[in-house]
Specification:
alpha/beta; 7-stranded parallel β-sheet; hydrolase; Cytokinin riboside 5'-monophosphate phosphoribohydrolase; cytokinin biosynthesis
């Protein structure tokens, strides 16, 4: 993997460890010569992961919709800041630039971006590894809900296993580097035929 897209909060949340883990992820990525692709902002966990990469002289590619430029949230010290017209263009560009995806703690935007990339993988539009850095069990309830989707027949277990999870940066990157996408189709048949 040469580049990883990281989706995360534009705020820090109320747990200092989330910020520390975002910085650590960035630092470890840079040390492994993995470039960061992210939303281009200097605020919250987004800024923290970018600063982590930059602190180790890594490369950071931000993708920012033009309407956010006027809010002065753009990071000033990126390798490259790519301005796009819409949130949809942003996700498409981030997908084009990266070899994998990691979700850190965040809100609606983080989940929306994460699930769109996961859905694209489920549909076979890409075969990239998709990871969750489960800092302090932040995503435990979501992972339980995803298990409920499997239990209730709305999601195949093989698609559930596309989500690589760890609370450790090095372990998550190892899982992503060794990931092989499933070869089965998305559609669930009646009676699990």
């Amino acid at each position: 993997m040469k580049r990883i897209t990281v989706f995360c909060g534009s705020s820090f949340g109320n747990d200092k460890n989330h910020e520390l883990q975002a910085v650590l992820l960035g630092q470890v990525m840079a040390k492994k010569n993995i470039d960061l692709v992210y939303g281009g902002a200097k605020v919250g966990l987004m800024g923290a992961v970018a600063d982590g990469v930059l602190s180790e002289n890594g490369k950071v590619f931000g993708v920012l919709p033009s309407f956010l430029m006027s809010k002065e949230v753009a990071h000033d010290n990126l390798t490259e800041l790519i301005i796009v017209e819409s949130m949809h263009e942003r996700k498409t560009k981030m997908n084009e630039l990266s070899d994998g995806v990691i979700a850190l703690p965040g809100g609606f935007g983080t989940l929306e971006e994460f699930f769109e990339m996961l859905t694209w993988a489920q549909l076979g539009l890409h075969k990239k590894p998709i990871g969750i850095l489960n800092v302090d069990g932040f995503y435990n309830l979501l992972l339980q809900f995803i298990q409920k989707m499997v239990d209730n027949g709305f999601l195949k277990e093989i698609n559930q296993k596309m989500i690589l999870v760890s609370n450790d940066v090095e372990e998550l990157l190892y899982k992503m580097e060794n990931y092989t996408a499933p070869e089965v189709g998305k559609w669930i048949k009646k009676g699990n035929e």
